[in-house]
Structure formats: structure tokens, C-alpha cells
Amino acid sequence: MLNECRKINGLSEIYYPKTKKERENFINSKSGKLITKFQYKVYDLCSQIPEGYISTYKLLANALKSSPRAVGGSLRVNPFSPFIPCHRVIASNFFIGGFDGEWIVHQSHQSLLNNKKHEEIFNSNKISRKRELLEKEGIFFDNNGWLIDWQNSKRLFTDFHL
Questions:
Q1: CA-to-CA separations, 57 to 54, 64, 128, 131, in angstroms, rounded
Q2: Which of 100, 17, 91, 98 is nearest to 54 (CA)?
Q3: DSSP 3-state percent helix, strand, coil across the chain (nearest 5)
Q4: Where along the chain do its domains lie?
Q5: Residue 85, class by beta-carbon neighbours within 10 Å (0-12 exposed, 13-18 middle, 19+ buried)?
Q6: Going by C-beta distance under 8 Å and a sequence separation of 6 or more, which residues neighbour residue 127?
Q7: Which residues form a coiled coil (predicted)?
Q8: Cα–Cα separations (whole angstroms), residue 101 to 30, 55, 87, 94, 97
Q9: pTM of the shown model
Q10: Which of 47, 87, 42 is nearest to 60 (CA)?
Q11: Which site among 5, 27, 86, 112 is 20 to 30 Å from 118 CA-CA?
Q12: From CA 33, how far away is CA 91, in angstroms rounded?
């Protein structure tokens, strides 16, 4: 169960509304809009992913009977990070994916990168932060953004409860 407020590694307290009344008027600090019921469902599921594990946009979407893009859209504006650990959600092909509104495309889509070098984008501030958070939890990616040893990974979390 989520705590309402929590300090994380010396960071300021992160408030996470739990009751229906608290949630109905909560403004997202990133978007300036009310947080939707669907977004809360995504955040509640994401909060179930334990430290040292990852899950995928597709697995969360399947649990919600939704689409991976809808899940990604909700996580893109997650105002409760890292308390709601959206950094633990990666693409279903085990590519690191996006973080804090920034998405990188795997190397086969190099032409979509607007002439930026793949390594330059992979090492951007936001994606580097996601990689750093995951590495502290024992989850590692190669220099192209792919999960290392994903075939033998026992760190894929799938046991979501609505």
C-alpha cells in the first residue's frame, strides 16, 4: 500500500493522493491539468513494480486492458517520480524507451533521430537519469540502450493487481 508522503533518498517529500476525494481535485504539476482516473490506475500499477525489477508498457497496458501508448502517455507526465517508479517501465522489446517525456528510438530507426547521434541521445540528461536509477537497482543496459541478458532475466515483473 502506498504512503501518502514519503522521503526518497533525501529528496523532498512526495505526496501521493489515495482517496477518491483527494484524487478528484489533484493538479498534475507537470501538465497543469487534473490527473485522470486512468492515469491513477497506471500510477497505482506502476507502484507495484519492486526495486530491482522492470516491467513493460505492454504488460501494464494488458493489465489495464488498454494500449502501451496510453500507458506511456500517462507515465510521460508522472508527477510522483521516483515514488511512482516509472523508470522501471521499458519497451516490450527490452529497449530502455523513454523517461520524463523524452523518448529515444532504437538504432534501426536512426533516420528518425533528426541527425543526432544515437549515443548522444541515449546519453541525454533524462535517459541517462533513467539508466542511472535502474543501474542502482541492478538493471543494466548496453551502450545502445538494450537490456543486458534479457533472455535470462528473472527481473521482469508481471504480477499486477488491480
A1: 10, 11, 19, 17
A2: 91
A3: 40, 10, 50
A4: 5-152
A5: buried
A6: 96, 98, 99, 102, 104, 121, 145
A7: none
A8: 10, 18, 11, 18, 10
A9: 0.83
A10: 42
A11: 86
A12: 26
Query: 58 and 48 in contact (C-beta within 8 Å)?
Result: no
Q: At a CB cut-off of 8 Å and minimum separation 6, what does 112 contact?
A: 105
Q: What is the radius of gyration, based on Cα positions, of the chain? A: 16
CA distances from 155 to 32, 110, 119 (A): 34, 29, 25
Would you say how long the chain is, in residues? 162
Angle, CA of 51, 12 and 28, to the nearest 5°: 85
pLDDT by residue for the chain (162 residues), tens only, comes to 343 444 444 455 889 999 999 999 999 999 999 999 999 999 999 999 999 999 999 999 999 999 999 999 999 999 999 999 999 999 999 999 989 878 776 655 444 344 455 555 555 688 999 999 999 999 999 888 899 987 667 899 999 999
